[in-house]
Amino acid sequence: MASQSSSEFEWPVLYNYPPFYTLQTNLDTRAKQIDAWCNLILNYFKYNKLYVLDLTEALASSPLFVNSQLNRILSRETASLILNTLDSRGNLEWQDKEKDRCLVMWRTPKEWGALIYQWASDNAFINTVCTVYELHSGDDTINEEFYGLELIMVVKALQTLQNDGKAQIIQRSNPDMSDAGVKFFG
């Protein structure tokens, strides 16, 4: 999980506190601990522009769950509890039944949809069609926050716009919808 910026990710103070890696027994403390972990995961994924988490891989080697300075690793059970909390908050979607691979949504699909729609509005794409690929990787979006966004997230964002009557997805042949189009409505 490499950083996309020249500066280092700023770890919270709790990251270097050994008890942070052990699920706390006091329920109030545990709730604060889980909330701190949720914030850490979302901030880490946002900073590094990551979207997919493989839990087994992350617990083996990611600095997110493995603090080599402290020689501490978050347990799988605690990590699963935290990820399930993110799921209940709408910031995570499991990609498999085993709950090992998930999509981490540091912005919800609705938030991404709002950014995409604002771009379409600001750039005169209302009542015109563009492709999902153009949104994801096009020259017109290179300076946008959603540029390079995981394709599945682009599609989820567009689905929220479609549900709100602000866009119509025009599906093509690829199951991943990379060749789909979208028409934005004013």
Please provide a brief summary of the model:
By secondary structure, this protein is an alpha+beta fold.
Topology, pairings included?
Layout: H1 27-47, E1 52-54, H2 55-61, E2 66-67, E3 72-73, H3 76-88, E4 92-94, E5 101-104, H4 109-122, E6 129-131, H5 132-137, H6 151-163, E7 167-170, E8 181-184
Antiparallel strand pairs: 1-5, 2-3, 4-5, 6-8, 7-8
Helix pairs in contact: 1-3, 4-6
Structural commentary:
By secondary structure, the protein is an alpha+beta fold. The protein has two domains: 13-104, Orthogonal Bundle (Arc Repressor Mutant, subunit A), CATH 1.10.10; 109-184, Winged helix-like DNA-binding domain superfamily/Winged helix DNA-binding domain (Arc Repressor Mutant, subunit A, Orthogonal Bundle). Helix content is 40%, strand content 13%. The chain has six helices and eight strands; from the N terminus they run αβαββαββαβααββ. It has helices spanning 27-47, 55-61, 76-88, 109-122, 132-137, 151-163; strands at 52-54, 66-67, 72-73, 92-94, 101-104, 129-131, 167-170, 181-184. The protein has a three-stranded antiparallel beta sheet. Strands 6-8-7 form a three-stranded antiparallel beta sheet. The chain has a two-stranded antiparallel ribbon with strand order 2-3. 22% of the residues are buried. Its main location: cytoplasm. Keywords: Cytoplasm, Protein transport, Transport.
